[in-house]
Amino acid sequence: MAGGASAIAPARREAVPEVDVSAMTIVRPRRWGRIAAVAIMLALIAWLTKAFAEGKIAWEVTGEYLFWPSILMGVVNTIWMSIACMIIGIVIGVAVAVMRGSPNPVLRSVAIGYQWFFRGTPVILQLLIWFNLALVFPRLGIPGLFEARTVDVITPAMATLLGLGLNQGAYTSEVMRAGLLSVDRGQYEAAQAIGMSYWASLKRIILPQAMRVVIPPLGNEFIGLVKMTSLASIIGFADVLRTSQDIYYVNARVIELLMVAAAWYLVVVTILSLGQARLERRFGRGFASGVRDR
Amino acid sequence: MTRMETAMEPEATLAPGLPIVSGRRVGKLFGDFRALTEVSIDVEEGEVVCIIGPSGSGKTTFLRCLNQLERIDEGALWLDGELLGWRLESDRLHPLPEAEIARQRRKTGMVFQRFNLFPHMTALQNITEGPVQVLREPRGQAEDRGRRLLSRVGLAEKASSYPKDLSGGQQQRVAIARALAMNPKVMLFDEPTSALDPELVGEVLSVMKDLARAGMTMVVVTHELGFAREVADRVVFMDQGRVVETGPAQQLMDDPQEERTRNFIRSVLGRE
Ligand SMILES: Nc1ncnc2c1ncn2[C@@H]1O[C@H](COP(=O)(O)OP(=O)(O)O)[C@@H](O)[C@H]1O
Ligand SMILES: [Mg+2]
């Protein structure tokens, strides 16, 4: 008898052996692939650890500077700058995404123009332009109301805030637009049908559903931004990289202090990832996802 | 019919002699495509009107015009004595601002074919969203009313369930409660049971029958001819964007005057 045919329909009832899957021992399959992968990883880690331990790094110096007061100030600066720029980015991003979906052609053009400029030029260039704004406009303000010298207003922190915030807004707006597009049209119509205004339905119905979709890419953007703040060190913003550099200019412990900065970036990014997982659970209520996500 | 006995008091805003819903030679174009042509449908207060007709005949489009999800191109739509979408001033039309359109929309409750419940809210939150956000009702009061509406549609114990954990029939009943929570003058139903498994159709229809018996004015697009025969005061048959025939439910179904109506009714009954 052909094996294929018997698999589909056993010829006779008595030909099938008595089986109850709950009453028998189950042989677990050996996952040779996994075992091999883990072995290779462990070997690599051991090798790297050994290399760095024997290499020319004075780890005790790294340890000594890890909680150095000026380093901690740099960490605090990196964190608040990242958060502030992300808030600016999200506010602008939502506004620009909504403007791009607006029936008003003026709003749409403004949104597209903004994205075009800020995505079309390097961030580092934008930072330098903001920082050197005084060369174009020596004084800023509204005549009669308040006025100030530009160099007093555009501090390194202010230039970073403007440069990174506005740049982040341009990228976040595309993430937000993807989120808005992901919400079914019927949701918007159902909101209208109960008499909600356009703005109320965006705020209460559309954006909360879009949030679920945009949190993973936004988390990505935020992590990118944390590291992008290090660019501000070139215009003199005292972030963790800048403060590390300031120290190694004096004591010449270059790698040791770069390791200090690296450790702090990893700590911040790890905390952010944990926060992201919490947010995903919060906005995922009411949705059944088809993909296992952890 | 029992409904006639429970007819509600006429509203003060109702212009004398005008039906609560009145479509006058309504036309709707999508680009070059004509979806509605000279559709005239009147609905009296407390009346249940069923609209039947083949797919693509413009039934959904007519309901969407009534709810102002679409704007009409010809004719006029009147609801509760008001011209929908425009302000008439010395022979000129001024488009209504969005807030006014939203106010007019609140007079109709819409039940969609695919439910369109808000997935990020529980059944109760779906129902209280409109009263709290739009009518500015205190939350506690809105929740009390929401729970009463949920038990009216037989889902008292599902208040804190999310839509994904409800069956299609349960979701549609929540959607009906959500529309009722806005105290609409007219309920619009767009094929409310055609996305449901056959065994779930009955529970939704029975909620709708209760509503009709309580005197609610209803415009129902449906393929459920049994429901139309039992509940509707009048049935409108549409084809290719036009009203072909309209009449009392029994008469239109047992003795249709038009060939097209006869063919349609035969084809639907043949399917069952
Ligand atoms: N937004 C739209 N754009 C273009 N054509 C549309 C649109 N909505 C509906 N139509 C067309 O109008 C006709 C009537 O549609 P519809 O009102 O949905 O019919 P029914 O509900 O009776 O099945 C159909 O031919 C449909 O393709
Ligand atoms: Mg339809």
From TrEMBL, chain A:
Top-level taxon? Bacteria
ABC transmembrane type-1 domain span: 75-276
The Gene Ontology terms for molecular function here are: transmembrane transporter activity
Q: Where in the cell is it found?
A: Cell inner membrane; Cell membrane
Report the principal subcellular site: membrane
What are its GO cellular component terms? ATP-binding cassette (ABC) transporter complex
Keyword Transferase listed: no
Instruction: Extract the InterPro entries matched here.
Output: AA_ABC_transptr_permease_3TM (IPR010065), ArtM/GltK/GlnP/TcyL/YhdX-like (IPR043429), MetI-like (IPR000515), MetI-like_sf (IPR035906)
Q: Which Pfam families match?
A: BPD_transp_1 (PF00528)
Positions of transmembrane segments: 32-53, 65-96, 116-137, 257-275
Q: What's one GO BP annotation on this UniProt entry?
A: amino acid transport
- Family, similarity comment: Belongs to the binding-protein-dependent transport system permease family. HisMQ subfamily.
* General function of this protein: Part of the ABC transporter complex GltIJKL involved in glutamate and aspartate uptake. Probably responsible for the translocation of the substrate across the membrane.
Summarize subunit and interaction data from the UniProt record for this chain: The complex is composed of two ATP-binding proteins (GltL), two transmembrane proteins (GltJ and GltK) and a solute-binding protein (GltI).
Q: What name is this protein filed under?
A: Glutamate/aspartate import permease protein GltK
Organism equals: Albimonas pacifica
TrEMBL record, chain B:
Specify one Pfam family. Answer: ABC_tran
ABC transporter domain span: 21-265
Superkingdom, taxonomy of origin: Bacteria
UniProt keyword annotation of ATP-binding present = yes
Which InterPro entries did the record assign? AAA+_ATPase, ABC_ATPase_HisP-typ, ABC_transporter-like_ATP-bd, ABC_transporter-like_CS, MetN_ABC_transporter-like, P-loop_NTPase
- PROSITE patterns (UniProt xref): ABC_TRANSPORTER_1, ABC_TRANSPORTER_2
What keywords appear on the UniProt entry? ATP-binding, Nucleotide-binding, Transport
Spell out the molecular function terms from Gene Ontology.
ABC-type amino acid transporter activity; ATP binding; ATP hydrolysis activity
The entry assigns this protein to a family as follows: Belongs to the ABC transporter superfamily.
What name does the UniProt record give this protein? Answer: Amino acid ABC transporter ATP-binding protein, PAAT family
Q: Supply the source organism for this entry.
A: Albimonas pacifica
